[in-house]
Amino acid sequence: MKQLRRNMRVVKELIRLRFQNLMMFRLGFFGPFFVDGSLFCIQILVFQAVYANVERIGSWEKGEMMLYIGTFSLLNAVNMMIYFFGVNAIPYKIKSGDMDLYLTKPISPLLRLSLEQVNPGSVPLIIMSILIITYGVQTAGIRISPGKLVWYLFWLVIMQVLYYEMEVIIRAISFYITSATSFVQLEEAALGLCMQLPGIAFYGIYKVIFYVILPYGIMATIPVQSIAGEMTAKTAVFGIGIVCIFSAITYLIWINGKKHYNSASS
Q1: 3-state SS of the chain?
Q2: Whole-model pTM?
C-alpha cells in the first residue's frame, strides 16, 4: 500500500509537469486536437465508403456497425491520450540506454514510462466517439438499461487493458532483439484491419489469429455484443481469459526483458 501511494504521488507529479510542458508550447497542446479530429472524420468517411452498399455483416446492421466504429475509436482515443506516447518510446529508451534512468528510480519503470507522456490532444476524439456510440445505439434500437451500461463499461475497461498489454508486449520485444519495427508494423496493419471489420466477420484461421494470437478483433466486438444483448457466457469467459493470459505474458516479457537489458553504464 505504501508503494502504491508513492507511485500515485509520482504519477500525479509527472502528469502535472507534462501539462506544464505542453502549455509552454501551445502548438504541441492544441495541434493534436486538429490531427485527431481529422483522423476521426477520415475514419467515418472510410466507414461510409466501405459500408455504403452493405446492409449487414453477420447479425449486425448499420446501427451495430456504427456502435463498433465508435467503440474502437474510443479505445484508440483513450490509448492515445493516456499511455501510447510513453509506451511507444520504450524501444528508443532501450536502444539508447535511457532505460537506466527508469530502472534506478523508486517507482515502477513501466508505470512511469506509460504515464509520463500523457497528451490531452485526443479529448475531442473521445467526445466524438461517444457521440457516434450514442448514434449507433439509437440507430440499432438498443434499449439501454443500467445493467447493460455497466456491463458495456466493464468490457471497455477490460479491453483497454488488453489494448495496453498488446502495445507493451510488442515494444518490450526490443529487450530481446535489435529492432521491433517489423512487429510495430504488424500491429499497425492488424489494428487498421480490425478497426474496419468487426470480430464477427472472421472465421477459421482468421478468427484464431484475431481472437487469440493478435486479439484486436475482440477489443471492440465484445463490448458491442455486451450492450446489444448478444453476449453468451462462453464469450464472456473467453474474453476475460484472453485478457488474463496476455496480462501474464506482458508481466513475463517485461520482467525477463529487464534481465536481458544491457545497461548503458555496463
Answers
A1: CHHHHHHHHHHHHHHHHHHHHHHHCHHHHHHHHHHHHHHHHHHHHHHHHHHCCCCCECCECHHHHHHHHHHHHHHHHHHHHHCHHHHHCHHHHHHHCCHHHHHCCCCCHHHHHHHCCCCHHHHHHHHHHHHHHHHHHHHHCCCCCHHHHHHHHHHHHHHHHHHHHHHHHHHHHHHCCCCCHHHHHHHHHHHHHHHHCCHHHCCCHHHHHHHHHCHHHHCCHHHHHHHHCCCCHHHHHHHHHHHHHHHHHHHHHHHHHHHHCCCCCC
A2: 0.84
